[in-house]
Design brief:
about 180 residues, alpha+beta, single chain, elongated, 6 strands, six-stranded mixed sheet
Length: about 180
C-alpha cells in the first residue's frame, strides 16, 4: 500500500506519531496520491500553493535599487554597503515553501477530515537540512485538537507561515 495513503489513514494521533517514527514516504507515492485525489478516485480534494519566502527584515525595498544603480563600490557610504550586504544575504536566506492540503469533499465548516503536508525545498535533500534523520516533509492534520483546515491554509497562503505543530515524516526519492 502507498505509504502516504497509510499515513493519512491513521485514526489516532498516537498511531500517526508511531508511523512517522518508523516509516517513510517516497516521492512517487506522494505524487501518486496527489494524482489519485485530482482524478477523483480518492475521497479527498487536493490544493497546493508554493512561493518564495524572504524573511521580512531582508525584503527588498524600492530605495535599494537606487543603491545598486548608483556609484561604483569603492565610493559607497557605509549605509549603502549595508543595503548591498542585505540584498545578497536575501539570496542565502530565501526559502521556497510548498504546501499540499488534502481535505474531504463536504462543503460544511469545519471540514471533518484534512491533512496538510508542507516543506521547504531544501528539506527534501539529504544534506544540509535541520532534521537529524535527513530528508523529510512536515505533516499536521485533523487529529490535532483546536487546529482547523481553513485556519492552517489561510495562515500559509496569506501570511506564508507553516504551522508550529507538526510531525516530521522521512521522505525519499525512491519507492519504499
Amino acid at each position: 500500500m502507498n505509504n502516504f495513503a497509510q499515513l493519512i489513514s491513521c485514526k489516532k494521533k498516537k498511531d500517526l506519531e508511531k508511523f512517522c517514527k518508523s516509516e517513510s514516504v517516497s516521492s512517487p507515492e506522494f505524487a501518486d496520491f496527489i494524482a489519485a485525489c485530482m482524478s477523483g478516485t480518492m475521497p479527498l480534494n487536493h490544493a497546493m500553493k508554493y512561493f518564495d519566502y524572504v524573511p521580512p527584515h531582508l525584503e527588498t525595498r524600492d530605495e535599494d535599487w537606487t543603491v545598486l544603480n548608483s556609484r561604483n563600490a569603492s565610493e559607497r557610504t557605509p549605509d549603502e554597503n549595508r543595503v548591498i550586504r542585505r540584498i545578497f544575504k536575501t539570496h542565502a536566506e530565501r526559502k521556497y515553501r510548498v504546501g499540499h492540503m488534502f481535505f474531504s469533499k463536504e462543503l460544511s465548516h469545519p471540514i471533518k477530515e484534512w491533512h496538510f503536508a508542507f516543506f521547504e525545498l531544501d528539506e527534501l535533500e539529504d544534506l544540509g537540512n535541520h532534521w537529524v534523520n535527513s530528508s523529510h516533509i512536515h505533516f499536521v492534520n485533523c487529529l490535532w485538537p483546536k487546529l482547523y483546515c481553513q485556519d492552517i491554509w489561510n495562515d500559509f497562503v496569506l501570511h506564508k507561515r507553516f504551522p508550529s505543530a507538526k510531525l516530521h515524516v522521512k521522505y525519499t526519492n525512491r519507492v519504499t
